Amino acid sequence: MNILLVLAHPEAASLNGSLHRFMVERLTSAGHSVRVSDLYAMRWKPALDADDFPARDTAAPFDPVLDSLRAFEGGTQTADIAAEQEKLLWADAVILQFPLWWYSMPAILKGWIERIYAYGFAYGVGEHSDTHWGDRFGEGTLAGKRAMLVVTTGGWASHYAPRGINGPMDDLLFPIHHGILYYPGFDVLPPLVVHRTGKVDAAAYARITGELGERLDTLWTTDPIAFRRQNGGDYEIPALTLREHIAPGRAGFGVHRKNSESETLVFEPGRL
């Protein structure tokens, strides 16, 4: 399989750097083809701006959406953007690896997303009508591919528990899982999260790499997060709100996952 590793950490001698090298070796040894986007080593330009569209009409106001579409369709994107898009199309699976900084991904990784997720490539794809609101959230250019996050935090696991002060990790990662990965079509796998990075000794490192190795070995057999497909019937279109019988009385991120316990049960005569 083809696997793209995207690393967003500025220090090669860090825990993240070590885990990245472990992943490359593990996947390569298993016979997979591996490509790497080490964003800091690449000196990736994080800001989406007019310089990304050298063929744009400079007499007109800069429009990030329309200029992105024109560059993508016209083949005038900058070479770095086109190269990363090609990697995404090549990959069967993508692993984003980063430390959780200020409750999100580092700016350089967010900038990687913003610049390569061009209009016509990652969004603005497919029919928009009263019955089908674009190819997204389970459909799209990257459908059929898998994605997984490898995330490190300095805090304890309990800090990110359902009642932890930082909020549940599932909620913190929802914008990335659902909004960045599931939106253009990825099947999103549960993340691997490493806590208390400042306290990792030899024993902890062995445990972490053991868990990470198992996740890599089962990359194609692990069940993805069961997000609801936008055009699968659970949502009213074009309002894009859940139908009344789906998770009645509930709100929040969790309702966008399929969960039989949260659905309305329809009574059928003759059944207990």
TrEMBL record:
Gene3D superfamilies hit by this protein: 3.40.50.360
Keywords: Oxidoreductase
GO cellular component, one term: cytosol
GO MF entries: NAD(P)H dehydrogenase (quinone) activity
EC primary class: oxidoreductase
EC number annotated for this UniProt entry: 1.6.5.2
Domain of life, per lineage: Bacteria
Domain Flavodoxin-like fold residue range list: 1-206
Name of the protein in its database record: NAD(P)H dehydrogenase (Quinone)
Top-level taxonomy: Bacteria, Pseudomonadati, Pseudomonadota, Betaproteobacteria, Burkholderiales
